[in-house]
Every structure is written in C-alpha cells, then in structure tokens.
Amino acid sequence: MIAHTAVATLSDDLLAQLPYFTGLDRRILKEIARAVRRRTFAAGETILAEGKPCEGLYFVIQGQVRLTRGSAVGRGHVLRVLGPGATFNEVAVFDGGPNSDSAVAVGATTVGLIPKGNVIALIERDPQVAKAALQLMSSRQRALGNIVEDLALRDVTSRVARLLLGCMGQHMHVVEQAPDACASITHQEIASMVGSVREVVQRALKELERDGAIALERSRIRIRDQAKLEHRAHLSV
C-alpha cells in the first residue's frame, strides 16, 4: 500500500514543540509548515527503508514508529519506538548519505516530512536550529555509548530495567512521550534492544515483577516502583 500524502499546511504550533524549532519566530515556523508533507501509514507499512536515498527529516504526528537497522525492513535490530513529537532520519539529512535506518508504522500512524533542502537551509541561516541539532545528536551519541557500556558491564535484567526507565522521559527510550508505561512493544523487540533473546527477557521481566519494580499487564509494562527499578538498572555483573 502506498502512503497517502496530504498537502494541507501543518500547524506551526505543532512544529514549535519539536526540539529543533522550539522558540523560533512564528514567521519562520509558518515558512517551515508550508514545506511539510504530511503522510499517513497503516500498521506494518514502511515509512522509509535503510540504504535508500534520503528525502528529509521526519517527525511523528500521531501513532508510533519503529526504527530498525540491518536485515529486511522492520526485521532488523530494533533501535527505538517513537511516539508523537519524536524526530528521525537526522543522520542521513546531516551527512548527505542514504537513510541510516528503516522505519515502520507500528499502528495507524501520521508523520510529517520536512524536505532535506529546507532543513539544511534553515540550519545554515539560524544558529538556534543548528545548536538544537547538535544537542540532540550529541544526546543520542551519549545514549549509544550507554548501550555499549550496558552490553559490557550489565546483565540482561539490568539492561531491561534501564530500558524501561527510559519510558519515563529520558532520551532514546522505548516509547517516547509515555510517562510510566511501555505500550505496544513486544518482548521480542525489547530483546532486540538489549542484545538478548525473548525467553531471557521474559525471565528478566518476571524477576523485576517479583521484586515489585514493575507490573506485567496485558498490553503494557507498568512501572510500580521507580526506585527499585533504578537500583536494579545500575547493578553491574
């Protein structure tokens, strides 16, 4: 199925909430809004494919987007699951290369696309946007360093605990904009993010539930005791 593209101008209020554009003059926001292409996808549809030419910077308007890398689209290593307000495909925009990841709609999802040329032009003329881009990319680089540390120093239960804590508002978390629960994510996806397998992750989740840190509900993982989860997240092997 081919995604539906809408040409209606996006609200500049929505753009003002994105990390790159917070605090920008309304005139500039309206200019960006006119360039945005709104696209809708059904569950399982590919938004962009790793290795294909970069169209621009994407952001989630409604729904959730799963980012993966390697293997077939949607079946590689799960990097993140993004919710409304999250941006993706920055690397390809800034380095001029192809898409670095694949992106698939988790459910019915609407995204906005800002063409690459518009993004680059805005960064070149507005230091505030350039600074925001550097800060966001730096935070993600730091998060990648944390992943390497986790794989080397922490067991699976600790890695799962750290991942779940990300649901509470940190960068690079499982479902962005989810204050206390990780919804619409499978045990297999968690396993992919922490470098393990589903069976081991299930045992780790049960251990965290026995400790009173989380509650395993039918469709989500509820964080019951943040202090207990943080304690388990920082234990080293």
TrEMBL record:
Coiled coil: none
Gene Ontology molecular functions: DNA binding; DNA-binding transcription factor activity
Pfam families listed in its UniProt record: cNMP_binding, HTH_Crp_2
Keywords for the protein's UniProt record, in alphabetical order: DNA-binding, Transcription, Transcription regulation
Any GO CC annotation of this UniProt entry: cytosol
Domain Cyclic nucleotide-binding per the UniProt entry, residue ranges: 20-140
Protein name: CRP/FNR family transcriptional regulator
Organism (species): Hyphomicrobium denitrificans 1NES1
Domain of life of the source: Bacteria
